[in-house]
Design brief:
Blueprint lengths: L4 E11 L5 E3 L19 H18 L6 E2 L1 H17 L19 E10 L6 H14 L7 H6 L6 E8 L6 E9 L8 H12 L34 E8 L4 E4 L6 E6 L5 E8 L5 E6 L2 E4 L4 E4 L1
Helix pairs in contact: 1-3
Keywords: Signal
InterPro entries: CAP_dom, CAP_sf
Protein name: CAP domain-containing protein
């Protein structure tokens, strides 16, 4: 029997050191389980799988991956342990974004717990957790989805703790960005902050997620850290003036996606082809040719 239970989720976002914007879910288990599927020795694998699936989701939506850093990893571990010891979620009462310093200019937290006595594979556990967060059933603001797909989050910490008494997996996602990474894009960050706390979804930020697509298949052309031959590493925001088709490589095959005009995208590499066209990498495996847009170095 499949005992899949999306028990509880809560999300909060702190933008530019503003007051938290909170969306709240259920705070305590409705049915206590006694059989334990996942075990404590699987925690590192589950954490790694959650990070992979999170970046899989971001890649499917044309976003750069978030990378783990020690301050946010430590914050995530402490938060997950605290929630597991409580046996419930705390509506972010124990969350202090300053504990993730220096990644505090833009910060946010997703927390939840999950249980399924029939699933033990870390990758499948992670897929279901990310799917639950993405679906955000019953959460009017869709705050978890918006946090995971925030284009201005650059770093993350993943925390996982398994409650030994009932087998619930308590997990946390601690997002953060340093101030020098958003200096040139403050207004866009503030706009997304308002969107994170607003009820519903917006056509301005269309999203999709197919958990059947493996995380490896979203990175077939470049890894998150590799540099495309002939490209130059940059740290910038590119804003095309018109609808722009994405390609799997500079002047390569068209992907099945485009980015809208006058929308801002983080880019970490630029490639100039033989005709002088500028190609910017906007996800791990997608490039946009933008010759008349606005480039803001971070």
């Amino acid at each position: 029997m499949n005992n899949r239970m999306k028990i509880a989720l809560t999300a909060t976002a702190v933008m530019l050191l503003a007051s938290p914007v909170i969306s709240v879910g259920v705070t305590s288990p409705s049915n206590v389980q006694t059989a334990q599927a996942a075990t404590a020795d699987q925690v590192p694998a589950i954490q790694s799988a959650i990070l992979n699936e999170l970046n899989n989701l971001r890649a499917q939506n044309g976003l750069s991956p978030v990378t783990e850093v020690s301050p946010l990893v430590n914050l995530a571990a402490n938060r997950a342990s605290h929630l597991s010891a409580m046996g419930a979620l705390d509506h972010h009462a124990g969350y202090n974004y300053k504990d993730g310093a220096p990644y505090t200019a833009v910060a946010g937290e997703n927390i939840g717990y999950w249980y399924n006595s029939s699933i033990t594979d870390p990758t499948e556990i992670a897929k279901q957790i990310i799917t639950n967060l993405y679906d955000d059933n019953g959460i009017a603001t869709f705050g978890h989805r918006k946090n995971m797909l925030n284009p201005y989050f650059t770093h993350v910490g993943i925390g996982v703790t398994i409650n030994p008494s009932n087998g619930y997996i308590f997990y946390t996602q601690e997002f953060g960005t340093m101030s020098n990474e958003i200096t040139a894009n403050v207004n866009a960050v503030r706009n997304y902050s308002a969107y994170t706390g607003a009820v519903g979804l917006s056509s301005e930020f269309p999203t999709k997620f197919d958990p059947s697509i493996s995380s490896s298949s979203t990175n077939t052309n470049t890894s998150s850290n590799s540099v495309y031959p002939g490209a130059t590493k940059i740290n910038a925001i590119i804003t095309p003036v018109r609808l722009t088709t994405l390609y799997t490589s500079p002047a390569g095959k068209k992907s099945n996606r485009s980015i809208a005009g006058n929308t801002s995208w983080y880019t970490d590499q630029v490639f100039i082809d033989g005709q002088g066209n500028h190609w910017y990498r906007v996800s791990t495996s997608e490039w946009a040719e933008v010759n008349d847009g606005n480039l803001q170095n971070l």
